[in-house]
Amino acid sequence: MWLSVARSEPIFNLKVSFSSSKPVLQIDCLIVGIGLVATGGRLRAEFITRDRTGNSLSFGVLALICIAFVVFPILGLAYYFLIHHSAPILWSSLFSAVVNSVVPSLVAITIGMIIAIPTGFFISRATSKGVAFLGFVLRLPLGVPPLVAGIMLLIVFGPNSPIGKVFHGRLTNTLIAITIAQLFASVPYVIEGSRGAFALLDEEVMVVADSLKMKLNRRLLSIYLPMVWSAIRSSLVLGYLRGFGEFGAVLLVAYNPTSLPIYTYVSFEGAGLPSTVTPVLVTLVISGTVAYLISRIAWPTKFIEGGFSYFRNQAKKRYQSNSKVERGDFVDGASFISVEGTVGGFELDINFTIEPGCSVILGPSGSGKTLTLHSLANHRINGVKLSIDGPLSGALQSSIGYVPQRLGLWPHMTVEQNLRLCIDVSGSDLEISEVLEGLDILELRGRMPKELSGGQYQRAAIARAMCSGGKLLILDEPLSALDLALRRSFLSLLAEHVKSKTPYLIMVTHDVDEALYLADSIVVMSHGEVLQQGTPSKIIDSPYNRAVAGIAGFDNIIIDRDQQGNGSLGDRAYFYSSDVVLAPIDVLVEVGLKVLGDYQVVETRPSTRGRLVTLSNGENTISGWIPPERITAYQNGEIVGVGIRKERYFRFPPE
């Protein structure tokens, strides 16, 4: 019989069985790896090395040691208090010491929260060596002995210091002195906790916030802090406990009025351990209670957003004023974009033009597409310089609708709240319900991002970008999680949105069909540079080189040479060496066809276009489509002839 007190995997089990007419009682505490077995009235301890799933419990044993090391002294204090009588104490003095510790510690942690959290954010975002050294200096109080900290504070705030003289010596032996000492002890914990929390923020979440042109204080209060509040709240608890228990620094700068740690020390020195038990228990109760209350503080979202109502109204006025400008007047002419720099050894030298309408960027992974979009979305990247000459520069001065590759919905907000913040910041007059209904996700408005599927998440991110109210929409592979049935309808929706709401659309995709359907202009990139730019027909009909042809879907490469090294294509010969590039759809497969010669069937796979067949002649491996109207199903190893549909192929110099 197994009895479990845990909700999932048992951490405590009781087993009763009978062996040789003797009852056997077994108690297993799986989480810590200790078992107690009683057999025939004898009790023995067993060390459990694995749980019921076969996992090692070594970490559980280490956890047990840690828990015991921390908990046993607390239990020892409680035990001592129960069996020994505490010496009489003067309750008024104890109460005064409590006040002298609690009030300054709360003031100190409040001041620390106001000044340390922005400091942690600043250090987490900066990359210079000077800021790194500053972070090191700010950590020093974490390891400085308390008495040394007190000496440093006396030098700066003591009666004979320049600052102390200004305040006529009132910065020592006062509640202000206790507050200063506790602040010095607690602030580094809040700074370090905040720095670590902000450093873990998803970069794309921050890029989206940058693209909306929000002020830093709005980004901090509405987006960044709510996302990391639980971690920062923990640092506030640590800071409070450290400041509340500070002894050495307080001893030097404020022996009087007496704080609780000093009161406890004086009691121990005067009357020994019995007189110390009560103030120690009071210290534990107060510190634990206040720490618990701090840990339960929720981020005041409604209060914060209510405070931004004035700025919301100002944004709406700006949007209405900008809307009076005629669309054509604002976007006439082409804009030249230059993105240059080096990031982690990757060199970026991107130059292309953009005109009103839909511009699509094609390129393999690692070609610099996302870095280019980040720069256009107003996100500063160290080592990268963005230059824009033309009317698009005006569009970058207002909010930008941006859908990053990982979509970047703010996880602490519902779908509707994500959209609402964009509308509030931009002042847009769009109705949230209309945008969500257009993307068929109206019923998801109250869900959190973690509750969405991949396709729903992607549509919610597109909806938020549409609510930006700006002149530029930037989408980084926005339809990759959607099924084929939805993609075409959303492409039409994006095209209509550009015509009516947003003059410029820049989209990255790996799908050539998406690019051909949506684009007015296609930019082909590779290895940090632009290979070719032009209309869809120009890219498809006249690719600049073999790399462009491959990116555009012409991924069959045929290398054929005669004995003199001249290029050839089946029975056609050329007086120069070249490689032939063609698309799978332009390859004809049929027994007896001799244009490209005989190939052996390597593999056939079904597809909505028919059957995709992989072919090889020993030197070249190519792919071709067998259309659905032809029911021929070739077998692996079969020899077939290969031709070219409509003589559609390109010749490029060999690589």
From TrEMBL:
Pfam families: ABC_tran, BPD_transp_1
First-listed, main subcellular location of the protein, grouped into a coarse class: membrane
Topology versus the membrane: Multi-pass membrane protein
Molecular-function GO terms, alphabetical: ATP binding; ATP hydrolysis activity
Entry EC no(s): 3.6.3.25
Alphabetical UniProt keywords: ATP-binding, Hydrolase, Membrane, Nucleotide-binding, Transmembrane, Transmembrane helix, Transport
SMART domains, sorted: AAA
Domain ABC transmembrane type-1, residue spans: 98-294
GO biological process, one term: transmembrane transport
Subcellular location: Cell membrane; Membrane
Domain ABC transporter: 331-552
Enzyme class: hydrolase
One cellular component (GO) term of this entry: plasma membrane
Positions of transmembrane segments: 24-45, 57-82, 102-124, 136-159, 171-191, 221-241, 247-268, 280-299
Family per record: Belongs to the binding-protein-dependent transport system permease family.
Cross-referenced PANTHER family: SPERMIDINE/PUTRESCINE IMPORT ATP-BINDING PROTEIN POTA, SPERMIDINE_PUTRESCINE IMPORT ATP-BINDING PROTEIN POTA
Protein name: Sulfate/thiosulfate import ATP-binding protein CysA
Organism: Acidithrix ferrooxidans
Gene: cysA2
